[in-house]
Amino acid sequence: MNINAKYFGPISYEEKELIHIINGLIGFESYNKYLPIPFQEEDDSLISLQCLEDEDLSFILMNPFSICQDYSPKLSDQELKELGAESADDISYYVISVIRESVAQSTVNLKAPLAVNAINRQAKQVILEQAEYTFRHALGDMIHKEG
Amino acid sequence: MLILQRRKGQSLSINNNITLTVVDTGTDWVKLAIDAPKEVPILRSELKEAAAENQKASATAPIQVLDEILKKK
Lengths: 147, 73
Description:
- The complex is a heterodimer.
- Chain A has helices spanning about 65, 75-80, 140-145; strands at about 1-5, 10, 20, 35-40, 45-50, 60, 90-100, 105-115, 120-125, 135-140.
- By secondary structure, chain A is mainly beta.
- Chain B has two domains: about 1-40, no CATH class; about 45-75.
- Chain B is elongated and about 60 Å long.
């Protein structure tokens, strides 16, 4: 199958690469089918989450553990059940970034990550109860800490 | 801003058509029952904030900033 991806132009993909977001992303409830496309091959640190139902819609995802090594999101039993996960180990996490004109102005949302069950490719944007995470962490601080 | 103290089982009324009742409380939480007309939207505040954040994240990201992020990794 083919799609004209927002950041990559025309590309082909297979159905098995798609993820299904249960109830859609918050505020984007009408879209469920997304294709994750890494900006660099074999590297999940920066991903375009391309919407299949609207080619102009793509979110920039990051692997939270590459920018915040001690990130430890906790899902409720109800959320794990919705994702069809037997244990929390089945879940991968990605965080949504707001990329602005510079890295210094950009932010990353650690409060509401996308939780993905890699086995059945069901995903859900959750809002963590953990008070240490907010909707807007400065990306510049996190990248610099790392390097 | 009006701040009221209510106990478990007590309620308050807003605009004569919305009733808020404290059903239960814990050390750091309260359970509320909201009786309001169907057309009144009720949303947990963090959902509203998450939606606003997603809205911003749906804007087109400048390619040069994405490149810079990749280089710093």
